[in-house]
Amino acid sequence: ACALHACLNKNTYSPEKCDKDLRRLYECCRDFYAKAGEGAESTACPMPRVLERWFKDHPK
């Protein structure tokens, strides 16, 4: 989350330059939800269904 925040601050007008940092955060979030199970919550991560939709829309 910190790397993404720093990247977005640095690239205010080019957020696409932060796609790698966003992907790393979302992969971390997906791992968190997989380990924590149903009902897990995080202030740093979008809801699991939002994550899955993002991964569908942004294949590697």
TrEMBL record:
Main location: mitochondrion
Keyword Hydrolase on entry: no
Keyword Disulfide bond: yes
InterPro entries: CMC4, Cys_alpha_HP_mot_SF
Keywords: Disulfide bond, Mitochondrion
Subcellular location as annotated: Mitochondrion intermembrane space
Family statement: Belongs to the CMC4 family.
The name this protein goes by in its record: Cx9C motif-containing protein 4, mitochondrial
Naturally occurring in which organism (per UniProt): Coprinellus micaceus (Glistening ink-cap mushroom)
